[in-house]
């Protein structure tokens, strides 16, 4: 899952766009390392039954940092969201972008339901 997230960010060019939005182009290597470490850590924690018992003083900066990252990621995604019209044109459904987006949405819904019902709710 983490490698898919990193590949998604790489293909869409999110990290360079994120550095442009924040005017921190000189620190692009730190962004890349942070995303890779975050993906590896997230993958490790999700694959293991790991619980962190942290105090609120430690959790507040972590939550703020996560919120800032999600906000910046959303801002960068809106900048490169023109991927859907290009993808629709390449696969031959130019006038039906809504169908493409709904296929992605329903695929995510059914995949999540399958995961929940089959793997979690046993």
Structural Rg: 18 Å
Low-confidence stretches: none
Task: Please trace the helix and strand order, writing H or E for each element.
Answer: HHHHHH
What's the tally of helices?
6
Binned, the helix content reads over 70%
Largest sheet: none
Report the portion of residues in β strands.
under 5%
Work out the count of structural domains: 2
Number of strands: 0
Assign an overall shape. flat
Distance between the termini: 22 Å
Structural class by sheet pairing and helices: mainly alpha
Instruction: Calculate the mean pLDDT score and round it.
Output: 78
Explain this structure to me?
This protein has helices at about 1-10, 15-20, 30-45, 55-80, 85-90, 95-120. With about 120 residues, it is an all-alpha fold. It has 2 domains: about 1-80, no CATH class; about 85-120. Helix 1 (about 1-10) packs antiparallel against helix 3 (about 30-45) and helix 2 crosses helix 4 (about 55-80).
